[in-house]
Amino acid sequence: MSRTRRSVANYVVGLATSFIAPAIGLVVTPILLGYLGDARFGALRTAQDWCGYAGILGFGVTLALQPLLVSAIHRPGPSEVPQLFAAAFRAYARVAVLMVAAIAVLAAFGPRLIRVPDGMDAELRAGIAVSVLGFLWLPFVAFRVLADAEQRAWLVHTLLVAQTVVTAVAAVGFAWAGFGLVGQFLAPVLGAAPFALGLAVYGTRRHAGIFQARSRPEHKEALSKLHAPSLLWHLTGRLELVSDTIVIAAILGTVAVVPFGMTQRLPMMAQAQVIALGAASWAALSELRARGMQDRFVLRLVQLTRYTAILAAATLVPIAVANRSFVTLWVGADRYGGALLTWLTVALAFSQSLFALWGWPLIAGGHVRRVLPGAIVAVVINLAVSILSTQSFGLVGTSIGTLAGFVAVSSWF
Predict the structure, then answer these.
(1) Backbone angles phi, psi at 207, to 5 degrees
(2) What is the DSSP secondary structure assignment for residue 78, as one 8-state letter?
(3) 85-89, 111-115, 204-208, 375-379 — which is least confidently predicted?
(4) Which of 175, 209, 303, 304 is the most exposed place for a label (fewest CB within 10 A)?
(5) Residue 240 and residue 379 in contact, taking contact as beta carbons nearer than 8 Å
(6) Is the pLDDT of residue 1 over 60?
(7) In sequence order, what DSSP letters do the residues of 129-146 get, joined into one string?
(8) What is the rounded average pLDDT of the residues 244-262?
């Protein structure tokens, strides 16, 4: 199968997935709000965002592994994929210790950071502690990188649907049974099982001896060299995109997280459809670079930029117009954050779709050090403006901050 056909297959399956997974979320969210209440639901979303920062340590290894796998797959001669996996597994084991320590600190101080209502402290601490079980699946993330690098994202998207279904069923079941925040933190751990194990079966069949191979010194050195900048890159991305609920919860309270998230849901769903175009193509673009086909790489990237911009505009503008009616019908008019928040979210979704498209081939090509300075400056501007704007303007403050960071730095850097 050619690069183009694989990219088309990846895009079609990814597009279907980007409809199915959010649709499940649309059904499940009102149910969880009914069982948990706004305060508990907002505390859950904020705590999950905090826990995500512990996971950054693991994603640093994953992003460092990405360009190395792309290079190894397209290099002639015996495959070095098993040896790379051996080095990655050792790196994951080292960072897992730090991740558990970070979760322990968060469990101890979580109620102070998140400002939960009285009587919810112990429940929040227990839920955060349960999230440690999710680290069991951390090494399996490497198999996703392998599938993506081999232009088989269709498999990743299919397994993501299975993960979403299992997680949603478990979350509703635990909420109905009265397990509160503990059950909501346990649900993603159970949901990740089919995704991780399915990708592991694929990887071991494609590359025999992954679990038996020994890492080589050059692989350890290459992974270590890329780990720190990749870690910082992922941290800046998370601070830019996922810190919003944390800032809102800290300044406005956890209840305010609900209208913020509900108002952003539909534009973010549309953004996922648009980003799917780049997600389906980055591996093929990386192959062109790896084979020295620079002119074709540039041509395809410019074409994809044009298609992404057209698709984003055609999708997001109608959503901005209809968003208030959607939120009102979905969860109630009192959970709508306003027209300004809607239009700011649409502007961010458009800009971030293009930013993601250009970021993937840069990171997959091992150029993370070159783009890191701009990302750091952008996120500093983002956080500073977000905090000041939220104090002054309420819910729209974090969106103003994110847009400021993008316009000031990311859009041109």
Answers:
(1) -135, 95
(2) S
(3) 111-115
(4) 303
(5) yes
(6) no
(7) HHGGGGGGGGGGHHHHHH
(8) 89
